[in-house]
Every structure is written in structure tokens, then in C-alpha cells.
Design brief:
It contains 14 helices and 31 strands. It is globular and about 95 Å long. A hairpin with a 5-residue loop joins strand 22 (425-427) and strand 23 (433-435). The two termini are 22 Å apart. The protein is 26% helix and 29% strand. By secondary structure, the chain is α+β, with helices and mostly antiparallel strands. The strands form 8 sheets. Strands 3, 7, 8, 9, 10, 11, 12, 21 and 24 form a 9-stranded mixed beta sheet that branches. Strands 16-14-15-17-20 form a 5-stranded mixed beta sheet. Strands 28-27-29-30-31 form a 5-stranded mixed beta sheet, sandwiched between helices. Bound molecules: adenosine-5'-triphosphate and magnesium ion (MG).
């Protein structure tokens, strides 16, 4: 390809809307262009690279035995009503009507569509197991689209759905996908960790996420270096470092005028945060219930765990308003479990290990001190706190660490959640009708593409791994008008083109500008044709370490063909 015939809309300035490096670089390198918030167009160089990411995903999915289909983005309301998600999915679902007033949504995920497809085609255990996948556009009306392709309202996902006769079959299908994902992310050049995950709006009973490690990631991973425990912060379970137990005292009401926050109470009573219990009242709109959640003062409430406890999902829970708290018989800033009866009380298990602590008295300007669980109040004990670095590993007891990650994929064991709701059954060997056991498996293709850039760049630009680079090599004459440089550049282009993906930069631009473009775009190998063209010697720059060597044209050819062949 000749650069003069390409669209290379590189930018010198940092676009104001971009914050993280990969987003800045994708815009500056002219790989993508924003249409509206959370919706992007892919430009030629970006699309070539995206297609390579997709090709690797496809190769490994096909190798795993999965079958590719392509289903529609437009999904009828009826299927979502059957699964019970039309009302449950919340405002992220793009809903619309056709001219006949029939309701539809744009698929944020495809459990309903695939379950419907399979229940109509598969009847016997002899046709199972099956794993079906697609690479397709998804729509989610995200509250805050951000960071380029990381959190979009329109994005490309590879989604797969497995159908098995029993739990053992599902375990095998899940394991195959888990291993396939590990191969995919390794082939894509990502440094990633696999972590335990919450099942969220998709549902089901077991899940793992694949996290590309990066400070720019929106997820927090809690992990143990001593054993293999690793979980997404939403799911992570941990033990707080152990507190010394004291002899139980009798509770006492104390005046705490205008001391609302946990920090204010701590300072006023001269007690550490771990001697205070934090009580918060949440409301779940879909299950229409309130719940009081109590955690140790030096911990945060984990809202995913709150949603699970209230049989709801994250999109539907919120803190109760001041008025609601009053109507429940308490008062904002002084909430506590003692003599509180208006809704269920959920007590984090760390609170049960505290002694002689402080809680709100459900009365303006009053708290109780020297409170103890069981002696003074009761409730439903569970895990409701956010795990954090320094907590103790639930498996081996060593201190946990934390790091940031980009969730590039997630696998779920769905079980019979959708097959029961949607009557997706088969006849077993004995002629009995049974629901199929399902799993579902997603990779955010466009998010993965950006995660690769986030992990592979330097101050000059992107450094594409060869397997996903838009082109393998670019030939850059210092001065294309120079007779010798012109001849050598064209000759090398003829030698390489069609064997490896080659660009000839025939633009009439200063060498500095041309080099800056290719360094920004991240083409892995740059050949500079300069003053030694007369001797058929050129300079090969490796974008990975920015090293340079002088080579003959034949040597360049041998080198790059070898590199590309090694990818296969
Ligand atoms: P998140 O927690 O980041 O919102 P999710 O858990 O809702 O994602 P899944 O339903 O598991 O997402 O979707 C599968 C994959 O699709 C995710 O692992 C992620 O890589 C990608 N993905 C999800 N939402 C978006 C989005 N808004 N923009 C881009 N990619 C996304
Ligand atoms: Mg997910």
C-alpha cells in the first residue's frame, strides 16, 4: 500500500476529551473517530488491526469446537419478557418501537436470542453439547460512556453460549472456554490475570473475569501472592486483620451534636474507625425493599453485595433518602440497628468480631457507645464489605494485594436460569424432558483492542505487537525525490509487498514528519532508506525497543518474512 493513497489523519495535539493514554493515542494515530458520546467510527488503520484481533479470537473459538453464527442486534420484547429481563435490565437497555407499535431492544447481550434459537432446533441429548458464538455489535446505554472504546454505548463483543445435558457437561464446556480465553489473551500479547467474579445482570452461579493489568483499568483486582486467590473487588471476600477482643461493657447513649460522619464521630469520641460501625440504609427499586447494612467503620459497603442481598441488581439500588430514613424511624447521620425494626438488618461478619463499639441511636444528635452484637442487636450475618489491600486472604490467611485491571472478558456458568424460564429442553436417553445446562462467555473485542494499546505504548506512540499491527512494515525514504532512494524504496516494496503487509511512504513530506507518524501509529518495523541507498543498504528500526540496524535489502526481506511466518 502506498501511503499517498491512505487516510492517515494523525493529530499532533492531545484531543481534549481523552484522558487515558490508549484513548489519546487511538485518536492521535487516526485509528478511530468519535461520532457521538460512546459511539465511534473505525478508520482504515484501526479497522485492519481490529480485524486481526477478531481473527485470533475466531481461530481459537473455532479450534475449541464452537460454531460461529451471526444474529441480529434487534431483539423482540417478547423474548426478554420470557426470561424476565425486560423489566429487570434497567435503563441500560435501548428500547424502541416499530411502526406497528411492537417493542424491541438493541441487544446488550444475547442469552434470550441464543436460547430461543437452540430450543427451536435441538431436541435430543444426541445433538448436545453445543457451543455457539458470534462476533457482533452490542448496545448498552451506559450512564457514563468513557475512555474511548473502554466503555461505549455501541461496541463489538464476541459472545458464546454453551448447551449441555448436565452439570458435568457444563463444567467441561466452561473449562474449555476458560482455557480458550487464556490462549486468546496470550496470543494477543496481553498481560492478564483471571479472577473470580460476580455474576451481575447476566445471572448464574459461577463466573470468572479476564483482566488486562493496567492502572487505566476501571476494575480493582484483589489477589494473593502466596496462593492463587484472585477476585474482582465486586466479588472479593477477605478477612479484616484481627482485632483484640475486650470484656463486654454495657451500652450507653451519648450526645454527639452535629457529628454525622464516621470521621467526625471518631474524632469527637477519640476512637479509631474500627471501633465504630457504619450503618447505611439502601433501597432496591425492583424488589421494593429497604435494607440496613452495617460494616466496620474502616470499610466501605460493597454495593454489589447489597444488591445480591436485596435480590436486586446494581442498577436498581440506591441509598435511602433523608425522608425515607425518617419514615423508617431513623435519622440520617445517626442510623443504627438498636431498636430498629422497619426493615431487615444485614450485618457484615467483621462487625460480629468487634467489641464495645459505636452505632447511631436513631435519634438526632445521639449515638450508642459500648455496643455489642447479639447482646444489643441481631440481624442477617453475611459478607457486605469491600475487600481491600492488607486484608487477609480467605484461602491462606496471608495479606492480600490489589491492582487495577481492564475487564476484557468474562465467563459464566448460567445453569438452567434461561433454559427453565424459556423452556429450552431436550429428551435424555430415557426419554425424559430436561432443561439444558447453559454457560455464556463474552470478550469485549473493541475494549480488548484498546487494552492492547494501553499495555503497548511509549512516549512516541503505539507499539503494536506484530500479530495485531495494521501493517507489518513501512518503508520510509528520507527523500523520495532522490533518484537512488526512489529506486531502492520501490525495489524493496516490490520484494516485500504481497509477502508481508507493507506500506511505502511515498508522501512528499519531511522525514521527521513521516517518522513521527509511523512511530505514533506503531508499525512494528520501519525501514529508513537514506544516504546508503547507493550501496543498497537501509536502516531497520524496531519500534519495540527503538533499536536500529543497517541491513541489505535481502536481509530486510529475510528478517521480516521470518518474523511474520513465526506468527502462524
Ligand atoms: P462492565 O462491568 O465493564 O460494565 P460487564 O461485566 O457488564 O462489563 P459483560 O456483560 O460481561 O460486561 O460483557 C462481556 C465483555 O464485554 C466485558 O468483559 C467487556 O470486555 C465488554 N464490555 C462490556 N460493556 C462494555 C462497554 N460498555 N463498552 C465496551 N466493552 C464492554
Ligand atoms: Mg463482565
Amino acid at each position: 500500500m502506498k501511503a499517498s493513497k491512505m487516510i492517515i489523519p494523525t493529530l499532533k495535539e492531545v484531543p481534549p476529551e481523552a484522558i487515558i493514554d490508549s484513548h489519546i493515542l487511538m485518536l492521535r494515530a487516526g485509528l478511530i473517530k468519535k461520532l457521538v458520546s460512546g459511539v465511534y467510527n473505525f478508520l482504515p488503520l484501526g479497522l485492519r488491526s481490529l480485524h486481526k484481533v477478531e481473527k485470533i479470537i475466531k481461530e481459537e473459538m473455532d479450534r475449541s469446537g464452537a460454531l460461529e453464527i451471526l444474529s441480529s442486534a434487534m431483539q423482540p420484547k417478547e423474548l426478554w419478557e420470557e426470561s424476565g429481563r425486560w423489566n429487570k435490565y434497567g435503563p441500560e437497555l435501548f428500547r424502541f418501537k416499530d411502526r406497528h407499535n411492537h417493542e424491541y431492544c438493541l441487544g446488550p447481550t444475547h442469552e434470550e436470542i441464543f436460547t430461543d434459537l437452540i430450543r427451536n432446533m435441538i431436541k435430543s441429548y444426541k445433538q448436545l453439547p453445543l457451543n455457539i458464538y458470534q462476533i457482533q455489535t452490542k448496545y448498552r446505554d451506559e450512564m457514563r460512556p468513557r475512555f474511548g472504546l473502554m466503555r461505549c454505548r455501541e461496541f463489538i463483543m464476541k459472545d458464546a453460549y454453551s448447551f449441555d445435558v448436565d452439570e458435568k457437561g457444563l463444567d467441561e464446556s466452561y473449562k474449555i472456554m476458560y482455557d480458550t480465553y487464556s490462549k486468546i489473551f496470550t496470543r494477543l500479547g496481553l498481560n492478564f490475570k483471571t479472577v473470580l467474579a460476580d455474576t451481575g445482570a447476566i445471572g448464574g452461579n459461577a463466573s470468572h473475569q479476564f483482566m488486562a493489568l493496567s492502572d487505566a483499568g476501571e476494575s480493582t483486582i484483589i489477589y494473593c501472592d502466596d496462593c492463587s486467590y484472585a477476585a474482582d473487588e465486586e466479588k472479593a471476600y477477605s478477612h479484616a486483620p484481627i482485632l483484640k477482643k475486650e470484656d463486654l461493657k454495657d451500652k450507653e447513649e451519648v450526645l454527639t451534636v452535629n457529628k454525622h460522619s464516621i470521621e467526625e464521630i471518631s474524632e469527637f469520641l477519640n476512637l479509631p474507625l474500627y471501633k465504630i460501625a457504619k450503618s447505611m440504609i439502601y433501597y432496591a427499586e425492583d424488589s421494593n425493599q429497604y435494607g440496613m447494612f452495617i460494616v466496620r467503620g474502616d470499610y466501605e459497603v460493597n454495593e454489589i453485595k447489597v444488591a445480591n442481598a436485596l435480590n436486586s441488581s446494581e442498577a436498581f439500588i440506591r441509598l435511602a433518602s433523608d425522608e425515607e430514613i425518617l419514615s423508617l424511624g431513623s435519622i440520617s447521620g445517626f442510623i443504627g440497628p438498636i431498636n430498629f425494626t422497619k426493615c431487615k438488618i444485614f450485618i457484615d461478619e467483621e462487625v460480629t468480631k468487634m467489641t464495645n463499639f459505636v452505632v447511631g441511636a436513631n435519634k438526632k444528635d445521639y449515638h450508642f457507645i459500648n455496643v455489642n452484637y447479639e447482646k444489643d442487636f441481631n440481624g442477617i450475618i453475611g459478607d457486605y464489605k469491600k475487600a481491600k489491600e492488607g486484608d487477609l486472604c480467605p484461602v491462606c490467611g496471608k495479606p492480600l494485594k490489589s491492582e487495577r485491571g481492564i475487564e476484557v472478558g468474562q465467563v459464566f456458568k448460567l445453569g438452567t436460569k434461561y433454559s427453565l424460564a424459556m423452556d429450552c429442553t431436550f429428551l435424555d436417553q430415557q426419554g425424559k424432558i430436561l432443561p439444558m445446562m447453559m454457560g455464556c462467555y463474552g470478550i469485549g473485542v473493541t475494549r480488548t483492542f484498546q487494552a492492547i494499546i494501553e499495555q503497548h505504548h511509549d512516549e512516541y506512540g503505539i507499539i503494536f505487537p506484530l500479530q495485531v499491527a495494521p501493517y507489518h512494515i513501512v518503508i520510509v525514504p528520507v527523500n523520495y525525490d532522490d533518484e537512488e532512494q526512489h529506486r531502492v524504496s520501490n525495489q524493496l516494496y516490490e520484494m516485500l509487498n504481497c509477502k508481508v503487509e507493507t506500506i511505502l511512504d511515498d508522501r512528499k513530506m519531511k522525514i521527521g514528519f513521516k517518522m513521527k507518524d509511523w512511530e505514533l501509529i506503531g508499525i512494528p518495523y520501519i525501514v529508513v532508506v537514506g544516504r546508503r541507498a547507493l550501496e543498497n543498504i537501509v536502516e531497520l528500526k524496531n519500534r519495540n525497543d527503538n533499536s536500529k540496524i543497517e541491513l541489505t535489502l535481502d536481509e530486510v526481506k529475510e528478517f521480516i518474512i521470518d518474523k511474520v511466518n513465526n506468527l502462524k
